[in-house]
Design goal:
alpha/beta, binds ligand F0G, globular, seven-stranded mixed beta sheet
Length: about 450
């Protein structure tokens, strides 16, 4: 059989909210052309994020009822701890309320002025937490990862030549950590190969730099290794994940992605002293070490989700569903990141809206157009998210201007995805009418969440 079906039946449903183009136009204007300011019941298909938006399984809901809410020593914690230990091989497990809480704790301890954190690509919250500590984040993405239209199997890889060069330049004493994001969310959801992780590890060991994994999408990355990297076809996903984690000294995790949970995260590691420092901060900011920022029921849902996510029928369907939308868009000539990533489709808005200069935020303009045309909510991953200003206030643009359509896990069916493709292709045909945007208000950090924009009147 060629048809890959959703490997689940639907037991409980939620309504889709319908509205008209005219209504959406008014809503968008009121939300200052920022999708984060639109209410979710004003959205038809919500592809803003795959984070915290998964449908939980019957087992997870059953686990929720089993949650033990004791302040200290809850059995739910020990089930959670054992699951994370088994998957990662890391003995020290620290629960947090979500990924960025793990990042905040980690970088408060190891970051600081004069320090450099090296990565394939840091996600926005990771970068923000590094910079907030006073340290500098350095993205060292492989060359092929920088060109959306050129397909390659592992476009999330770190540039290991650049890694050695930057270590030599900055001095390993100033580099407390190297962190690899799997899959590379900001760079198109592209996977990192085992070979690359091994090579990064070798360089880190030679320079006495610990290696961490930002493990949000570890199962999707492991599945890509299985189907794309030589020597892994016959290995199971848990085996591949275990090998991937074996090269790391620790990891940060958002359980809102590859754990099918609506909230949660953790830090896991080998180093006792670092774990002690982390737990000391945890008690102040998150909670006692056997619950972190979570309820016992959340710990249960995460533990169950972490095992469910490695099911190969699920991962085959998951990766295929992203590829399905990507291929439909490619067939219609829409410029997208190739090949398909693990959790989202990324449109190259610089190419899609080539008449809009980068300082008029083509990505945000496309996000706006998709919302008005079909009620689809997406997110810009470009100069609004990552742009900086130079001393004269001129925009230093991001490497790429992408629009991400993140697919929530186990939530939408094929007909929803067909509808999404239809809307995008319709907008593509009428792209000449789309105007650029300008920022009228912005915050100093993570400005994309709250920025207010307006359409250009002359462009
Ligand atoms: N690292 C990566 C690679 C992420 O994608 C995210 C979140 C985080 C860390 C932070 O985790 O949200 O639990 O605090 N990404 C979401 C997204 C928000 O939409 O891609 P968190």
């Amino acid at each position: 059989m060629n048809t890959i079906i959703e490997p689940f039946r639907i037991k409980s449903i939620e309504p889709i909210y319908f509205n008209t183009k005219e209504e959406r136009h008014a809503i968008l204007e009121k939300a200052f052309y920022n999708p984060f300011l639109i209410h979710s019941n004003e959205v038809l298909i919500d592809l803003l994020t795959d984070s915290g938006t998964s449908a939980m399984s019957a087992s997870q809901w059953a686990g929720i009822m089993m949650g033990d809410e004791s302040y200290a020593g809850s059995p739910s914690f020990f089930r959670f701890e054992k699951t994370v230990q088994q998957i990662t091989g890391m003995p020290l497990v620290i629960p947090t309320h979500q990924g960025r809480a793990s990042e905040k704790i980690l970088f408060s301890i190891i970051g600081g002025k004069g320090k450099y954190i090296l990565s394939n690509t840091l996600f926005d919250t990771t970068r923000a937490n590094i910079e907030y500590s006073g340290a500098e984040g350095v993205d060292l993405l492989c060359e092929e990862g920088k060109y959306p239209a050129i397909p390659a199997p592992f476009k999330g890889n770190m540039d290991t030549v650049a890694l050695e060069r930057v270590i030599a330049e900055k001095g390993s004493a100033n580099i407390p950590l190297c962190i690899i994001t799997v899959t590379n969310n900001s760079g198109g959801g592209q996977p990192v190969s085992m070979q690359n992780i091994r090579e990064v590890k070798r360089i880190c060991v030679a320079n006495n730099i610990p290696l961490f994994i930002d493990a949000c999408r570890f199962a999707e990355n492991s599945y890509f290794i299985k189907i794309r990297e030589e020597g892994y076809a016959d290995k199971s996903v848990p085996e591949i994940a275990r090998e991937l984690f074996s090269y790391a000294d620790g990891c940060t995790m958002s359980a809102k992605k590859d754990a099918f949970a609506n909230i949660g995260g953790f830090l896991a590691m080998h180093n006792e002293l670092l774990a002690l420092h982390c737990r000391n901060l945890l008690v102040i900011t998150e909670g006692f070490p056997t619950y972190g920022g979570l309820a016992g029921r959340d710990l249960e849902a995460i533990a169950i989700g972490l095992n469910e996510v490695m099911d190969e029928h699920y991962l085959q369907y998951r990766i295929r569903s992203i590829e399905y939308l990507t291929n439909k868009l490619i067939a219609a000539g829409v410029p997208v990141m190739q090949p398909a990533g693990g959790h989202a489709v990324y449109i190259d808005s610089k190419e899609f809206l080539s008449h809009i200069p980068v300082d008029q935020y083509p990505g945000q303009a496309l996000v706006s157009a998709l919302y008005v045309a079909g009620g689809i909510r997406s997110v810009e991953i470009g100069s609004l998210m990552f742009g900086k200003y130079d001393a004269k206030g001129k925009l230093i643009p991001a490497q790429m201007e992408l629009v991400r359509l993140a697919i929530p896990r186990r939530v939408y069916t094929q007909s929803h995805i067909d509808y999404v493709a239809e809307v995008i292709i319709e907008v593509f045909k009428e792209k000449a009418a789309i105007k650029g945007l300008r920022i009228v208000e912005e915050a100093p950090v993570l400005r994309h969440f709250t920025a207010r924009l307006q359409p250009m009147t002359n462009g």
